[in-house]
Specification:
single chain, 454 residues, alpha/beta, Alpha-Beta Plaits, Rossmann fold, 2 domains, 7-stranded parallel beta sheet, 4-stranded antiparallel beta sheet, 11 helices
């Protein structure tokens, strides 16, 4: 099979064999300097860090260009570059490709993350489903179909106080946003741009509909039809998940997506993705790997708060199967991993549980993920099950809370949310810290919470 990838503005065509994640030992030859961060981070990204007292460090420097060139000379076609974990992901051919890369003096590790023998080709849907745009009115509530999933956490009170996400930027990293550009109820959503790390140059609005439903939980802003949990926020829509296959290379895509979001100044990210099983079963994670360090994705997620951003992620839907536990990156530190409840406050049976392999509480909090109200790719309201929807519902509420508490750091907001959970005194590995009361969290902030959180 043959795939076409865009690299450095040029298209290359080759017979695909395997993708390798190549870890590098340093950044000698990067060509960038910490004294000139404006050359690799946006003004908004730098302002976010300055506001939280965060310094730009060596992990922020772009990967060494001289190393990339050397890898290319050995036959590696670079697809993904990850600066925080200092790696490149390449497409290469030949049985000795991994050995060629490993012999380079600056390479510390080479891992195969995709193989043409065990994976399906990347595909992006080229046929849109029909759009009906027949949305029901709900005259009894301005939130329309989204009423119960915001009221259960009292986040509607934040909205009433004027905190609806204005001035905040959210990145949604997902698998696609099918028909977003054709759906009437989504026309008020403020999208700043899109980025596709799976199939660059393709139509992100013709791919999976999963991200569309996720976005609708947060950004929808049509009174008496549906209002999401952060209706005045701005959004970047980013694709990292390839629904045609399941391989570790999607974690590489995700890392690149996160770094892109950082570079353009995103404040909060939602990812309703999780990985533990792959097409090649030899690559599967084990329960002992849920330590926030084994998975590349989890390592990356654990860095986000130290970069001044909050990650809200789904716990996973394995509660009723043999795995049961959360999936990467839900095992990361300094994130909000969200389990699913029904609108009655009871746990959804499918919601993944904790703890992590090193004994940390997971999930962190819970939100409505059973019969969640969403917008479908036909433009109508619908309902969906999964922690995939509990996560964005929580993400929007966290965004509004941070807007209301602007002098808190990312880590402080995460702790504030957990402290406002209805099980905060006795957290467990099923509900975590429970259902957060966002109004209670805001009141705690007004009472001087920031003075006691380190």
């Amino acid at each position: 099979m043959t795939l076409i990838f865009t690299v450095a503005g040029m298209k290359a065509v080759a017979q695909d064999s395997a993708k390798y994640r190549i870890s590098l030992k340093d950044k000698v030859g990067t060509g960038y300097s910490l004294s000139r961060p404006q050359e690799f981070l946006s003004e908004k990204a730098l302002a976010r860090r300055t506001r939280q007292g965060i310094r730009v460090d060596s992990t922020d420097l772009p990967v060494s260009r001289s190393y990339i060139q050397a890898i290319e000379r050995e036959g590696g076609r670079v697809l993904i570059v990850g600066k925080w974990d200092n790696f490149v992901t390449v497409m290469a051919n030949g049985a000795d490709a991994a050995e060629r890369f490993a012999r380079l003096p600056f390479v510390t590790k080479v891992e195969k993350v995709w193989s043409s023998e065990s994976s399906k080709p990347t595909t992006t849907a080229d046929r849109r489903i029909d759009v009906a745009n027949e949305v029901k009115q709900h005259p009894d509530s301005i939130y329309g179909s989204g009423t119960e999933q915001i009221q259960i956490s009292n986040a509607d009170k934040l909205h009433e106080a004027g905190f609806k996400g204005a001035g905040m930027t959210i990145a949604i990293i997902d698998g696609g946003f099918h028909n977003y550009d054709k759906i009437d109820i989504m026309k008020n959503v403020k999208v700043l741009g899109t980025k596709d790390f799976v199939d660059p140059g393709s139509d992100i609005f013709a791919a999976s509909s999963h991200g569309l439903s996720v976005l609708s939980c947060i950004g929808t802003n049509t009174p008496y039809q549906m209002i999401g949990t952060a209706p005045e926020a701005e959004f970047w829509l980013i694709r990292s998940e390839d629904e045609s296959s399941e391989t570790p290379s999607e974690e590489d895509n995700w890392c690149a997506a996160v770094e892109f979001a950082d570079s353009v100044g995103v404040d909060v990210m939602n990812t309703s993705l999780g990985y533990n099983e792959f097409d090649d079963k030899t690559m599967n994670y084990q329960l002992r790997d849920l330590d926030g360090k084994k998975s590349l994705m989890s390592r990356q997620a654990s860095r986000l708060a130290s970069k001044g951003m909050i990650l809200v992620c789904s716990a996973g839907n394995s509660g009723s199967n043999s795995w049961k536990k959360t999936t990467a990156p839900g095992d990361a530190t300094d994130v909000l991993t969200v389990g699913a409840i029904g609108k009655d406050g009871n746990l959804a049976a499918f919601s993944s549980i904790g703890t992590t392999s090193d004994g940390r509480i997971k999930p962190d909090v819970v939100a409505v993920g059973l019969m969640s109200d969403v917008i479908r790719p036909n433009g109508n309201q619908g309902r969906a099950n999964g922690t995939s929807f509990a996560s964005p519902i929580m993400c929007g509420m966290v965004t509004c809370l941070w807007q209301a508490c602007p002098n808190l750091t990312a880590k402080q907001v995460i702790e504030l949310v957990k402290s406002a959970g209805d099980r905060a005194d006795f957290p467990d590995n099923v509900y975590g810290y429970g259902i957060p009361d966002m109004w209670k969290a805001y009141q705690a902030y007004l009472s001087g919470y920031a003075k006691v959180v380190q």
